[in-house]
Design goal:
This protein has about 200 residues and is α/β, with parallel strands linked by helices. The chain contains six helices and nine strands, in the order βαβαβαβαβαββαββ. It has helices at about 15-20, 40-50, 65-75, 95-100, 120-125, 160-185, and strands at about 1-10, 30-35, 55, 85, 105, 130-135, 145-155, 190, 195. The protein starts with a strand and ends with a strand. Bound molecules: glycinamide ribonucleotide (GAR). Glycinamide ribonucleotide (GAR) binds near residues 13, 14, 88 and 117.
Length: about 200
Amino acid sequence: AARVVVLVSGTGSNLQALIDAATDPAYGVQVVAVGADRHGARALERAVRHGIPTFVCRVPDHRDRQAWDAALAEQIGAHTPDLVVSAGFMKILGEAVLSAHTVVNTHPALLPAFPGAHAVADALAYGVRVTGCTAHLVDSGVDTGPILEQVAVPVEDGDTPESLHERIKTVERSMLVDVVGRLARHGHTLTDRKVTIP
Ligand code: GAR
């Protein structure tokens, strides 16, 4: 199975979906570690409950962003992953991590619309009638990397950022499980932003 390190900051429902899928050997993924940028993330508790090693790498414990990124790259690298998944990890990754690892991110909007940390609220405030989620490879920009998969989610009358995000997350979890499994089992090639999973 492909060795996968998952990076988290929040509740970890996407992480949970990956852990659940990985109980089937045919899925081809072993979640070998879960890393967070802060203590107390509920996602870390999920990892512990499943006996998965965890680590925490906090920006304020480092002299600057670059030192933090180098330390994070080292902690990820200690688990020799084939793939890194950013699942609700609310930090921009730097060169040290990105040069060493293929990183997949899941984002709660149809990129390139609404990048950044407030995608769902931004989409709602803009008044779009359709939004959704995107799985993409991470590059040095903010949510700019090559797109792997997208799923559309209609906005409903009366939606709040919370209600809309919950509906997005329901389809997002299946999208992420599908994409990560395909990458794990088949790998990928990248030409001019076009990702091919053989
Ligand atoms: C997900 O919707 C993910 O797309 C989003 O955080 C949520 C994490 O949920 N990520 C971002 O907004 C990144 N900019 P989870 O902790 O339950 O998996």
